[in-house]
Amino acid sequence: MKSYFFIGAFFLLQTFAFGQATNGDQLLGVWEPSNGKARVKIEKIGEKYYGKIVWLKEPNDPNTGKPKVDKNNPDASLRTVPLKGYRMLKDFKVLGNNQWDSGTIYDPENGSTYKCIIKMTNSNTLDIRGYIGVEALGRTDVWKRLSTNK
Amino acid sequence: MRMRLFLFLIVLLTSFSIKGQTDTISDGEEDYSMYENLNFVDEGAKRFCTPKVFDISPAKLISVGFDHQGAFDIDYGAWGNTDKSAIGPQTGKFNGASGMRIGANIPVIAKTNIVLQLGFNYLRTAYSGNGVTSNNPLDQQLREEGLRSTGINTTLFKPLNEQNFFIFQSSADLSGDYNFNQLIPLKYTRISAALIFGKKVNDRKMIGFGISRTYRVGELNYIPVMLFNWTAPNRKWGVEMLAPARANIRKTISPRNILLFGYELEGNSYRILSQNFSNDQGADIKNIELRRSELRFRATWETSLHQFLWMSFQLGYRYGYGFQLDQFSNNKEFFRGFFGDQVYYQENNLNGTWYAQVSLNLVSP
User: Fold this and answer.
1) Which of A4, A71, B253, B281 is deepest in the core (most CB within 10 A)?
2) Distance (Å) from the alpha carbon of B150 to chain A's nearest alpha carbon
3) A-contacting residues in B 143-202 (Cβ below 8 Å)
4) pTM of the predicted protein model
């Protein structure tokens, strides 16, 4: 009897874990922030989710004519890194209930990194909230999923 | 043993490498051209403009500051604005005026298609100096109680599409010579509001026009307003303007170090609750408000101390735009505007002086 209980519990946990993984991977894909200035591809590395810039509306720096780099980064060693390919979303973990937390979002415009929580309001829309300290002190941007034809 | 050590080092180095790459820079080659011609999965999805242009000075979520004005005189007109008054024109000399300034602007809704902020502000002005030259009731009251202004405000930014937006601002202020033992009744709340329609031309320029009901000139007025936020292509300079309330030329030293050169017009109508106001016959003077307005030309240095904690230093010249007393008949606010002929109860001149202000600010993402 005991063994049946453990087998049942094992399968229940497996199902739960699988459900979590499947739910978390809904985040994967290419997304566009509300201002339409960039496109971000969210990938999974290990158990965490990362988002890198894959397209820029204005790819070149108007002053230099060369591809934009992360010139506002407080870390001087990263100021020559191209923005295209830059991971601006980092370290997100599945929280459940269509939410991902424990991550950060980087704003290349001012070189600031904010705590961030992602909420999927429907399968093609994300509420990305960057905040300072507590969630109440923040700003939410709505990102839309782009079709990659894959 | 050597093999184990070698494998250990390989694993260690590999883990560092992966950590570094996942931190910021993506690994591997990728054909980014495949992301150029993509469409929204949701066909009805809309893009909206944001309320900021590149490099605009950061919005202050919470601000605690101190303001100090240097020595100045106030030239008082005749009490009751009549030649027969026992209290004729006088000059009050002050060593300075100073006070705390506290503000908060918290975004309660901050989404792509709507941004709503609620705010609070408190301004204190304590006047210092012995009133040896004046027995003017207003002069005495300024020295004894000074002025306070406490208010709440709201700002709504509503983008309509990628370019067009409107902004609605309103505030409710209680201003006067009250203190925490004698609070000002809510019926003396003064309401200001502004509505602006604008266009965000690109990420470096937004412009808008509207109308405002304002007390910035000290008394109730209805004036047109113009919004203009602009950043030069080299991103070293810019303009931040909500005229006539304020306008600044911005010099961006770095995203965390900003210089601003410009002016701000600030003012309100201060209810005088003092019981010491009387006319020549000794009868109480009631329903008096001080129409105070200051035009401040200044240079401001805003700098980040640590991440979102910023410090602001301001130095400038304070010009006294208005410092008149009005008496309300039937205790009702009225509109004089720039061309009205209603007579002031006392016409005063607040002389200019230097001022300095310092504040600690928590700024918005």
Assistant:
1) A71
2) 23
3) 162
4) 0.81
Nearest of B63, B108, B58, B101 to residue B307 by alpha carbon:
B58
Tokens at B76, concatenated: 């008082």
Query: Over pLDDT 70: what percentage of chain B?
Result: 89
Of A86, A131, A132, the CB nearest to B24: A86
Query: What are the chain A neighbours of B49 within 8 Å (beta carbons)?
Result: 35
Would B40 be classed as within a structural domain? no
What would the pLDDT profile of A19-30 be if each residue is shown by its tens digit? 444 478 999 999
B110 vs A45, A54, A140: nearest CB: A140
Residue B135 lies in a domain: yes
Chains A, B: CB contacts within 8 A come to 126
User: For B271-330, what is each residue's pLDDT tens digit?
Assistant: 998 877 766 666 667 889 999 999 999 999 999 998 889 999 999 999 999 999 999 887
Question: Greater confidence, B111 or B202?
Answer: B202
CB contact B88 to A (< 8 Å):
no
Domain around B333: 60-363
Residue B33 touches partner A, C-beta closer than 8 Å = no
